[in-house]
Structure formats: structure tokens, C-alpha cells
């Protein structure tokens, strides 16, 4: 697996607290919480904080919201306590979102919470003090390119349909001085979360990075500053990157479907989904930044508070398996959950309790002790070494039912550097899963095929591109072969109709990619799986096999192409 790129010493030092933290709170809060998703009596589809853009609200109309924004119930200590009790170590709040309204006292523009609202308080000052008291890091989100309040910025084409726009002027007169204010007036800041880099030039991104590091050398800069210049990468919204990323990364995740409060969005993710997403993100070496959208009164919605308390209860007992951990040492996912690691310790996050026995292949260390992390109860185990075949096995004897229905963690002490056999193999439940990242990709001339950050193929629109995997089998038999592709829930995001042949053990399975059935993507409810049934194959004996997946034809003009998550082979009972 690819190792993290060596980072300059200064970047490594800056990142130390953040990689240890693994879990932070995102807060989207602004005057868009007054309409809360409704304009002139009608619901406005889309994200709550985008209402000005989606409803094309003229600036003078939108400005009036400031006079109605009076969050008298805002209590910085309460917000920080909610984050801390959830196990979060940092808090990243929108100091200025795309609507251009500063949620801090700014001398640069009177369009700010202290000068333009009846509240007249600076919540960032109060949050800075509350974070200091609680030992959390305060971080600021700042929208550097989009600012719908400004003619020269990016985004407002309803008030300013025509150019010219002087982005450099806006950048020099608003962005740079406001970022300077944020880094001067609130004490030490953990990071600045820039967003939607859009048109920003390399030189402008670099100026922001330099300004931040000059004013506060320890302050991190998010990947979305643009041009690859951040201290770490930001995954796409609500996306969990694959294991093996070359740079430190973080994913921003919503609790319901919006970031900024919307009164009609009741589509809350369950606590179980959140706990498993947190563990999955850590198992792939990333940070999980979970959003809350407080109301215009300054209250974090009770649905969010309840879920964060659940996550907190889990973290209280199992935080050791998240904080300061490294990714899953195996290059592949296991079927019962995910793994995280520390030197000498492996954490098995069991999402799907297998009953009395859990078996794991390929661990080359000798296990010294196994226990349930939450209680310390010892877990009996037996190891059988067969490194030559790659089916070295560890069997754990477990309680009959899951101690924690969301994620029961078993800790293995292995007393040294963790070593695993990385070869792709049939798993103890009999399944064989072949993800693109672990195959050999053969690209034709002019191919644009590649993997997105989640490890899903994109732009596989050329029938000359194909993938081949090598895998090992210890329990042969008949297998159902399915092709799992990824669809985006909100938007089409999926192309079918490709004619493919999967060949393994001398047998050909030909099929056309179709929307046969959907499956929940365990890592992310927003990206459901589409399952195409390819057919059945027989593997006669244990040993090494290969499988090739070759398109015969792909319909012209596809936008997404084949979005392959993996090929899955399931034993037929
Ligand atoms: O447009 C914004 C959106 O409103 C929200 O702030 C998210 C959070 O990651 N960032 C942008 C879209 O990616």
C-alpha cells in the first residue's frame, strides 16, 4: 500500500495534534438560519446555507435578515460541552460563508454580526474563551472565493449578471484583511478551513497559506485553499476516502442533509451510522468532521445533541481505538467491520457480530492478549500459522451476542510492529471482494479512467480499459458473481448499459450493467450501491486464481462511465 508522502518537518509538527484528534465538530451558522430553508412562504430545495443563491435573493433583501438575527440562546460553553462530550477535539465554525456575512466582529466590513444584528456580541470571542476553558482547539471556516455580497467575488450572478469582476480587488480588500483579523483577535487558532477554491490562482492560494503561517505558524490550512497547497486534503462532502491516501485527510459530514439549519430537514443519520462512519474514517487514516447547524436562536437542534451524546458514550468506552490511531494495516476491507491500529495493538471494530466465533486471516504476528476494549474482558483465541498458503488464521471466541450493537471493539496485543499478508484472498465468510485499487489496471490510449478518492473508478468510458485481479481461495465451490457500482443519491450520477465480460477459471460471464437492485453503502448512505448480477462460476480447487473484467462495449457519450466499487463473489449455499 502507498505510504504517506514525507511531509516537511514544519507541516508534520503542525499536523501532530490534528492527526491525534481524529474527530472534530463542524458548525455552519449564519443569518440564513432566519429563513431556515423557506423563502416567501415556499420551501427552497438544497442546502440551507445556499438559500440566497438558490432563491436568487437580491442583496438588499437578504441584508434585512441581519436585523432579524438575534441568537439570545447562544451559549458558547454549552456548544463546546456538546462537542467535548461527543469526544470531539476541535471545533470548526463558519466565520464567513458564501453569503459574505461575517459571524465575527470585523473592522473590514460592517456586514458582520456585531455591527449589523441586534445581538451585538461576537460569538467567536465567546467560543475562543469556552474552547480554551475546555481544552478544545477553535478553528475557523472562511469562504475565500464565493461571496455573494460582493460584486468582485465569485457566485452572485443575479445581482451582478455582467462583469467586469475584479477578484483581486475583493481578495485584497476583504479576504486578506478578514483572515488577518481572525488570526489576530481570537488567540491561537487550530486551522483555517477554506472552501470552494473555484477560480483562485496558485499565487492567491499561496498568499493565504503564507499569511496564515506567518501570523500563526502552528495554524493548519485546509486542502480547499486550492492548488494543492493546504497542509492536508479535504475529501468531498460526505465522502470517506479509501485507505492508502498519500496525504493526511479529513472528511466533512452532515448529520442530516444540510449544513446550515433548515426547519424541514428531518433526515437524520442514526447514531449507529455516525459511529461506524467515524470508525471507518479512522480505519482509512482520516479525520471525521461532523457538522451541526444551530438555529437562529443559537440552539444546536436536539436531534443532533442526542446523536452526539450517543457517539460520546461510545467514544468514552472506545476512544482509544480512534484517537492517535493509524489505518487498517490490510489493504482490503473485512466483511464484519473495520480495523484501526497503533504500534503493537490492533483494534477490530466489529459492526456485524458473527456469533460465537470471529476468524481473521493473514495476521503474521503472534497475538499475546485479546480483550473487549470497553470492558477489558479477556477474549480467548487460537492461532494457526500457514503463511505459505496465505491463510494464517486467528480465531476469537466471543460472547454470543454483540456487547455493543453499533461497534464492539476487540483489542489485540501483538507486542511489536504489526505485520499482515497483504494478498487478496477469500475471507472467512467465504466471500471474495475485488476492489479496483487492488487490481492491475490496463488502460488504452487516450484513456481518462482513474480512481476517485473513494477508490471508485471514474471516467471508465473507453471499452479498451480493463482490470485484472489475482486472488487466493481456500474453500472452493460455486460462487455468485456481482458487479457493485456506485450511484449518487442526490442527482443522477450513474451510467449503465455497458456490456462486460468477467472471466475467471476459464469461465466467461457476460452481462450488461443494469440497475438490478440497490444496496446500502455501509460507509455512506449518500452513495448507494447498484448491483448487477453477472452470473455463477465454479472454482474447483483451493489455490491462486485471476479474474479479468473487460468491457465489450460502452454506450457513447457517458458522463460518469462505469463507477466500479468492486466485484463480489459470494459462495452459493
Ligand atoms: O458550498 C459549501 C457548502 O455550503 C458547505 O459549506 C460545504 C462543507 O464542506 N462546503 C461547500 C461545498 O462543498
Index terms:
10 helices, 20% helix, single chain, 5-stranded antiparallel β-sheet, binds ligand FHN, 8-stranded parallel β-sheet, 573 residues, globular, 26% strand, alpha+beta
Quick gist of this model?
The protein is of the alpha+beta class and 573 residues long. It contains 10 helices and 29 strands.
Describe this structure in words.
The protein has 573 residues and is α+β, with helices and mostly antiparallel strands. The chain is 20% helix and 26% strand. The protein has ten helices and 29 strands. The chain has helices spanning 9-21, 51-54, 59-68, 76-86, 113-116, 123-134, 167-184, 202-215, 271-283, 302-318; strands at residues 23-27, 38-39, 42-43, 90-96, 137-142, 191-194, 220-221, 233-234, 249-253, 286-292, 337-342, 345-350, 357-361, 369-372, 381-384, 393-397, 408-413, 432-434, 440-442, 450-451, 457-458, 466-473, 477-486, 499-504, 507-512, 517-519, 529-539, 543-553, 564-571. Strand 9 (249-253), helix 9 (271-283) and strand 10 (286-292) form a beta-alpha-beta unit. Helix 4 crosses helix 6 (123-134). The site of ligand FHN has 8 residues, from loops.
Task: Summarize the main sheet.
Answer: 8 strands, parallel
Secondary structure category: alpha+beta
What ions, cofactors and ligands are bound?
ligand FHN
Q: Could you tell me the strand content as a percent range?
A: 25-35%
Please write out the topology.
Blueprint: H1 9-21, E1 23-27, E2 38-39, E3 42-43, H2 51-54, H3 59-68, H4 76-86, E4 90-96, H5 113-116, H6 123-134, E5 137-142, H7 167-184, E6 191-194, H8 202-215, E7 220-221, E8 233-234, E9 249-253, H9 271-283, E10 286-292, H10 302-318, E11 337-342, E12 345-350, E13 357-361, E14 369-372, E15 381-384, E16 393-397, E17 408-413, E18 432-434, E19 440-442, E20 450-451, E21 457-458, E22 466-473, E23 477-486, E24 499-504, E25 507-512, E26 517-519, E27 529-539, E28 543-553, E29 564-571
Parallel strand pairs: 1-4, 1-10, 4-5, 5-6, 6-7, 8-9, 9-10
Antiparallel strand pairs: 2-3, 11-12, 12-17, 13-16, 14-17, 15-16, 18-29, 19-22, 20-21, 22-28, 23-27, 23-29, 24-25, 24-28, 26-27
The protein binds ligand FHN.
Ligand FHN is lined by residues 47, 49-50, 195-196, 237, 252, 259.
Amino acid at each position: 500500500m502507498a505510504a504517506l508522502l514525507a511531509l516537511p518537518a514544519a507541516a508534520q509538527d503542525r499536523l501532530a495534534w490534528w492527526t491525534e484528534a481524529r474527530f472534530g465538530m463542524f458548525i455552519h451558522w449564519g443569518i440564513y438560519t432566519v429563513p431556515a430553508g423557506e423563502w416567501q412562504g415556499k420551501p427552497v430545495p438544497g442546502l440551507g446555507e445556499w438559500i440566497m443563491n438558490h432563491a436568487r435573493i437580491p442583496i438588499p433583501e437578504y441584508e434585512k435578515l441581519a436585523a432579524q438575527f438575534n441568537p439570545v440562546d447562544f451559549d458558547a460553553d454549552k456548544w463546546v460541552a456538546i462537542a467535548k462530550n461527543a469526544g470531539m477535539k476541535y471545533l470548526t465554525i463558519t466565520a464567513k460563508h458564501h453569503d459574505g456575512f461575517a459571524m465575527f466582529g470585523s473592522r473590514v466590513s460592517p456586514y458582520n454580526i456585531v455591527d449589523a444584528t441586534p445581538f451585538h456580541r461576537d460569538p467567536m470571542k465567546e467560543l475562543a474563551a469556552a474552547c480554551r476553558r475546555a481544552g478544545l482547539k477553535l478553528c475557523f471556516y472562511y469562504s475565500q472565493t464565493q461571496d455573494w455580497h460582493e460584486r468582485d467575488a465569485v457566485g452572485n450572478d443575479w445581482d451582478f449578471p455582467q462583469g467586469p469582476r475584479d477578484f483581486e480587488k475583493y481578495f485584497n480588500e476583504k479576504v486578506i484583511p478578514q483572515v488577518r483579523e481572525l488570526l489576530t483577535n481570537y488567540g491561537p487558532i487550530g486551522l483555517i478551513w477554506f472552501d470552494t477554491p473555484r477560480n483562485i490562482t496558485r499565487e492567491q492560494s499561496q498568499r493565504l497559506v503564507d499569511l496564515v503561517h506567518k501570523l500563526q505558524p502552528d495554524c493548519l490550512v485546509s486542502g480547499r485553499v486550492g492548488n494543492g497547497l493546504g497542509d492536508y486534503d479535504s475529501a468531498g462532502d460526505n465522502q470517506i476516502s479509501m485507505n492508502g491516501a498519500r496525504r493526511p485527510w479529513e472528511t466533512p459530514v452532515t448529520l442530516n442533509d444540510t449544513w446550515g439549519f433548515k426547519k424541514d430537514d428531518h433526515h437524520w443519520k442514526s447514531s449507529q451510522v455516525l459511529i461506524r462512519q467515524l470508525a471507518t474514517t479512522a480505519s482509512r487514516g482520516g479525520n471525521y468532521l461532523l457538522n451541526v447547524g444551530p438555529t437562529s436562536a443559537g440552539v444546536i437542534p436536539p436531534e443532533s445533541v442526542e446523536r452526539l451524546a450517543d457517539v460520546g458514550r461510545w467514544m468514552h468506552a472506545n476512544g482509544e481505538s480512534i484517537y492517535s490511531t493509524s489505518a487498517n494495516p490490510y489493504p482490503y476491507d473485512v466483511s464484519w467491520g473495520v480495523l484501526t491500529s497503533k504500534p503493537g495493538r490492533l483494534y477490530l471494530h466489529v459492526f456485524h457480530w458473527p456469533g460465537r466465533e470471529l476468524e481473521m486471516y493473514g495476521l503474521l504476528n503472534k497475538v499475546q492478549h485479546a480483550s473487549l476494549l470497553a470492558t477489558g474482558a479477556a477474549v480467548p483465541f487460537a492461532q494457526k500459522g500457514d503463511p505459505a498458503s496465505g491463510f494464517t488464521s486467528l480465531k476469537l471466541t466471543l460472547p454470543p451476542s454483540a456487547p455493543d450493537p453499533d461497534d464492539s471493539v476487540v483489542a489485540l496485543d501483538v507486542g511489536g510492529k504489526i505485520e499482515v499478508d497483504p494478498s487478496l484472498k477469500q475471507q472467512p465468510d467465504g466471500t471474495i471482494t475485488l476492489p479496483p485499487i487492488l487490481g492491475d489496471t490496463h488502460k488504452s490510449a487516450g484513456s481518462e479512467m482513474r480512481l476517485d478518492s473513494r477508490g471508485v473508478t471514474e471516467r471508465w468510458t473507453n471499452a479498451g480499459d480493463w482490470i485484472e485481479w489475482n486472488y487466493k481461495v481456500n474453500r472452493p465451490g460455486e460462487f455468485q458473481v456481482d458487479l457493485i457500482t456506485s450511484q449518487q443519491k442526490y442527482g443522477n450520477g450513474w451510467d449503465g448499459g455497458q456490456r462486460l465480460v468477467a472471466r475467471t477459471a476459464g469461465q466467461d460471464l457476460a452481462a450488461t450493467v443494469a440497475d438490478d437492485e440497490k444496496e446500502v453503502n455501509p460507509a455512506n448512505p449518500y452513495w448507494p450501491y447498484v448491483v448487477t448480477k453477472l452470473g455463477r462460476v465454479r472454482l474447483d480447487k483451493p489455490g491462486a486464481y485471476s479474474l479479468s473484467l473487460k468491457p465489450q462495449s460502452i454506450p457513447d457519450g457517458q458522463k460518469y462511465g462505469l463507477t466500479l466499487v468492486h466485484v463480489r463473489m459470494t459462495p452459493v449455499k
